[in-house]
Amino acid sequence: MPLPEGIYGLMAEFDSPSDLVHAAKAAHAEGYRRMDCYTPYPVEEAAEAIGFHRDEVSLVCLIGGLLGLAAMFGLETWINVWAYPLNVAGRPYYSWPAFVVPAYEWTILYAGLSACFGMLALNGLPKLYHPVFNAPNFRNGATTDKFFLCVESTDPKFDVMETRSFLEAHTPVSVVEVEY
């Protein structure tokens, strides 16, 4: 069935996190994969229920730290061995123990910066607009005391009528269409 024009998805509103988790688990078991949960505070069970397993920030942080370590060792080696070699007290030009502390500092700096900017990039931020803000009750309830499950229209299993009846079977407060 072709996607309805202008519909981002269907959003169900729940009063408690347990109702949201129950509906999210059922939706994932039913075969829906393009969905998201919106809560006023972190609900780890909801993330597990929709099959959210991504945690790439730690890998970005590791790569950033290793790049910082390599960059500082490379910079110190280039300076002390090739660019400005100085014979200080008969020590060798490449004295790696002296390079450890600055390389360690650059490792921490690059890891921290890559974690910060990697998190922003992986979250798609800054994002000034999202279609779920068009849903009634979302602006007031999502940050205070309501729990929302949104099944997106890009899901291969999405059908407006079937998805609406599926969501209504889990006794939400309301089910609304979210427009673009």
SSE arrangement:
Layout: E1 7-14, H1 17-30, E2 35-38, H2 44-49, H3 57-83, H4 100-122, H5 138-141, E3 147-152, H6 160-168, E4 174-179
Antiparallel strand pairs: 1-3, 1-4, 2-3
Helix pairs in contact: 3-4
Characteristic key phrases:
single chain, 180 residues, alpha+beta, 2 domains, four-stranded antiparallel β-sheet, 6 helices, 4 strands, rod-shaped
What would you say this structure looks like, in words?
- The chain has two domains: 7-54 and 130-179, no CATH class; 57-122, no CATH class.
- The protein is α+β, with helices and mostly antiparallel strands and 180 residues long.
- The mean pLDDT is 91.
- It is rod-shaped and about 80 Å long.
- The chain contains six helices and four strands.
Briefly, what is this?
It contains 6 helices and 4 strands; from the N terminus they run βαβααααβαβ.
Give the overall shape: rod-shaped
Question: Averaging pLDDT over every residue, what do you get?
Answer: 91
Main sheet: strand order: 2-3-1-4
* Distance from first to last alpha carbon: 19 Å
